[in-house]
Task: inverse folding
């Protein structure tokens, strides 16, 4: 049985698995679902490069409007290696389709389904994270149904904005280029050369940024993606970098996907090199759609760069 139908709610757990429709809803919204999809894939052993998660508290609820089979929201109430996660609620239809009535009915249904879950303790819900309007509606409903008050100041509030970089981004991009090339990478950059690289990337329209703006704070670039080697029909992604502060939030996947969509308007094929030891990066690129990411794939070619005694050579940069 793929899931149990509770009015407009389907539930999935370790014993039922997630239905095909549930997986399709997540994969069709992979960038937005980066908080839920990777974890679900690990739980069910669907990722080649990362170990399966053994934590037992894994519950997903899918909301469909009554009379339809299309999933509008996916809620996850799950647990990772270090403990329980917040509730994540992923919209799987365009945000513009969420009328006030739909938001109210869907969040009411999700709250009720959770509270009706056998053995579920309302104290388990320590926070909820979703698109702002859905988070607000869920929090109000949960507060009313459980008597547990919300904290007025949000734990986290931010705008994610992927876009092509502009001149005003040069200083931030230069810093990230320097960090990307930091030791032990042999091809380190001086502040001057990092600035030059940033300006070249921007002038050539070859670098994208994911800008995050927290409430009452200045925007900050959380990830850069550069595609510097382009030829007839082919573009190469040559740089993907996320500072430690923003890692684990799905930033790289969001921006790589966005850059690829724009590149595919001009090029037939996109290629990249990924370190053989970078399992998490392979997983991200695989979800975006890149192929040949393991040694057994017929599309895979393992390339190797061997350096020579740095005391006896003059390093360049690439």
Result:
């Amino acid at each position: 049985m793929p899931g149990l139908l509770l009015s407009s709610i389907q539930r999935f757990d370790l014993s039922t698995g997630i239905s095909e429709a549930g997986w399709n809803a997540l994969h069709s919204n992979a960038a937005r679902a980066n908080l839920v999809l990777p974890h679900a894939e690990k739980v069910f052993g669907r990722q080649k490069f990362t170990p399966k998660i053994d934590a037992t508290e894994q519950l997903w609820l899918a909301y469909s409007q009554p009379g339809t089979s299309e999933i509008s929201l996916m809620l996850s109430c799950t647990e990772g290696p270090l403990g329980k996660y917040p509730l994540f609620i992923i919209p799987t239809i365009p945000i513009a389709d969420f009328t006030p009535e739909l938001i109210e009915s869907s969040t009411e249904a999700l709250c009720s389904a959770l509270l009706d879950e056998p053995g579920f303790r309302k104290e388990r819900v320590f926070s909820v994270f979703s698109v702002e309007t859905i988070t607000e509606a869920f929090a109000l409903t949960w507060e009313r149904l459980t008597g547990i008050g919300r904290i007025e100041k949000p734990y986290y509030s931010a705008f994610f904005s992927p876009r092509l970089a502009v001149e005003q981004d040069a200083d931030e991009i230069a810093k990230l280029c320097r960090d990307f090339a930091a030791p032990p990478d042999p091809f380190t950059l001086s502040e001057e050369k990092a600035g030059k690289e940033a300006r070249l990337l921007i002038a050539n329209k070859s670098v994208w940024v994911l800008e995050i703006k927290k409430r009452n704070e200045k925007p900050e670039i959380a990830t850069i993606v550069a595609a510097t080697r382009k030829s007839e029909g082919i573009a190469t992604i040559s740089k993907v970098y996320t500072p430690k502060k923003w890692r684990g939030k799905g930033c790289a996947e969001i921006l790589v996907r966005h850059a690829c969509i724009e590149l595919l308007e001009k090029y037939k094929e996109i290629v990249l090199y990924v370190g053989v030891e970078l399992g998490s990066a392979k997983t991200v690129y695989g979800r975006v759609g890149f192929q040949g990411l393991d040694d057994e794939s017929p599309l895979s070619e393992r390339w190797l760069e061997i350096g020579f005694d740095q005391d006896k050579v003059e390093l360049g940069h690439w």
In short: The two ends are 53 Å apart (CA to CA).
